[in-house]
Amino acid sequence: MSFKTLPKIELHHHLEGAAPPAFVRDMARAKGFDVSGIFDANGAYQYDDFLQFLDVYEAATKPFQTPDDYALLTAIVLGEAAEAGVVYLESFLSPDFCGGRDPGAWREYFHAMWEAALSAEELGITMRGIVTAIRHFGPEAAREVAACARETAGGFVTGFGLAGNENAGKTADFAYAFDMAREAGLRLTAHAGEWAGPTSVRDALEHLGVERIGHGVRAIEDPALVADLAARGTVLEVCPGSNVALGIYPSYADHPIARLRDAGVKVTVSTDDPPFFHTDMTREYEELARAFGWDEADFAALNRVALEAAFCDDDTRVRIA
Ligand code: ADE
Ligand code: ZN
Q1: Could you report the average pLDDT of every consecutive run of 10 residues in the chain (321 residues)?
Q2: With contact defined as beta carbons under 8 Å apart, do 217 and 229 qualify?
Q3: Cα–Cα distance between 7 and 82 in angstroms, integer?
Q4: 193 Cα–ligand 2 center, Å
Q5: Rounded-to-integer distance, Cα 301 and Cα 248, Å
Q6: Cα radius of gyration rounded to whole Å, the chain
Q7: Domain residue spans of the chain
Q8: What pLDDT is recorded for position 210?
Q9: How much is the pLDDT for 190?
Q10: Among 57, 155, 172, 204, which one has the highest count of C-beta atoms within 10 angstroms of its own C-beta?
Q11: What pLDDT is recorded for position 78?
């Protein structure tokens, strides 16, 4: 069967990470940037490992220099997600790249992205933003990002997150930024259990007070943690194609998503950075169906979990259900 038209809810997606390579090249040409080093001979993003992936990701953001550039990026990305059947998308937004963590500049980027998102609703897709600090830029930068998030909390921006190199710094050092975001009424998530093991997931829960975990898949290495996640109802934003492309697991069949689900953990499925990993939501469903025999009923159940865990208000939840 084709999964393309099945309505999908996606909770873990990085806006710049979804930029099509051709669009980055066009933007770079228009702005006089040389980005040739980040693409292979076929024009795809190229990197050898996760740290290089982060460098390539950052280099690909450089040509996007104005709120209008980000409005265009948002429109293109939402068009592609809608093509893959996504009806609701939460995307990580980065004040580090939009206005250099200056709250005034950030506000302009925020308005541009929000307007583009509102226009895209005619395609049948609703977007919410999760303002996201980048861990390897450090805790002080994360506080500045939280200040930007606070500036625009409510409506379009509904969450606060932490991405980047999970092995940089101590999780507890980011608690202040998360406290700021919580006080501003934002819902919380953090990348953990992707490049570090179960302790990193425990740290995110304990020190950051998050209700969802980005990835979280390496919790599988600790059965007690798996039981704990199931008991607490913590939602994992699982991105199988990302984990396979970056070499955490050799194939979809080796990925722990099915074991986590079968142990009672609330799992959801997302793409993370679709063109970097040669994926989209349709492909994720197809690969999971192939690897685990999941069918339409399994995906409907996944989407119910995602809908319940979405960082949106109940009116929006009812509208997209
Ligand atoms: N930023 C974009 N993609 C990411 C990933 N998979 N892990 C951490 N930070 C990211
Ligand atoms: Zn991510």
Answers
A1: 93 98 98 96 98 98 98 98 98 98 98 98 98 98 98 97 98 98 98 98 98 98 98 98 98 98 98 98 98 98 98 97 92
A2: no
A3: 9
A4: 11
A5: 26
A6: 18
A7: 8-320
A8: 98
A9: 99
A10: 204
A11: 99
Q: Which atom from ligand 1 is nearest to the alpha carbon of 14?
A: 2
pLDDT score, position 131: 98
Alpha carbons within 13 angstroms on the beta-carbon side of residue 20 total 14
Known catalytic residues? 194
- The domain defined by 8-320 folds into TIM Barrel (3.20.20)
| Terminal-to-terminal C-alpha distance of the chain | 22
Tokens representing 32 are 């006089």
Distance (angstroms) between ligand 2 centre and the Cα of 164 equals 8
Residues 83 and 5: their CA atoms lie apart, in Å, by 8
Query: String of b and e for 140-175 (b: at least 16 CB within 10 Å)?
Result: ebbbbbbbbbbbbbeebbbbbbbbbbbeebebeebb
- Give ligand 1 pocket residues (Cβ under 6 A): 14, 17, 57, 163-164, 191, 194, 242, 272-273
The Cβ of residue 55 has, within 10 Å, a number of other Cβ atoms equal to 13
The residue to mutate among 13, 57, 218, having the most atoms of ligand 1 within 8 angstroms of its beta carbon, is: 57
What sign for the dihedral angle of Cα 308, 314, 320, 321?
Answer: positive
Q: Look-up: residue for tokens 């984990």? A: 243
Instruction: Compute how many other C-beta atoms are within 10 angstroms of the C-beta atom of residue 195.
Output: 18
Q: What is the pLDDT of residue 2?
A: 86
This model of the complex carries an ipTM of 0.98
Q: Using the 8-state DSSP alphabet, how is residue 165 labeled?
A: -
